[in-house]
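Much of our argument rests on the idea that a fold can be written as discrete symbols. The record that follows shows the chain in one-letter code together with its fold in token form.
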Amino acid sequence: MRAALFSATLGTFMTLGLPTVTTAAEPADALNTYLEANVLPWADDPVIVEAVSAQNAVTSGYDQAQIDALDRTWREEVGTGASALVDGVLMGPAADFLREHVSALGGTMTEVIVMDSQGLNVAASNATSDYWQGDEDKHQKTYGVGVGAVHFSEIEFDESTQIYQVQISFTLTDPATGAAIGAMTVGLDAESLM
């Protein structure tokens, strides 16, 4: 099972007065349970797999200069209301699908980001601060590790959602082939997990 392999960097819940947890095992168990019950049942839906596969067909040959240029464009255009790059991630069937799942979980899930094999955003429930996630643990410790990899972040203040959250990231696989195709990150409201 995906939860069997993970990088638990979640040390304590002692950020800004949240209750202290003395071992990483307890929060990791809670996050694994949340992942298995609330995310994995829909993570390999065809709308997600098809969106990632389609983008991989376009971006798989991008070099670092192209990736950096796209990331700069995203940062300049996010929030302006006039960006084909940002709209391509935030609008469409995959993004709508993600927002439906965020909404259905009643506030515990704050965001979902789907990334391709390069770590570039494919779809997101809401705008991210950058376009390229490939330089971050959410991609390096999942897709970079391979099929079945799961990574838990520390609790941090997230600029894009404006709340303290923990992120669960994992490798996305194509159910037809079993091959790793990208990664998904779900942000959870840290206080809702208490």
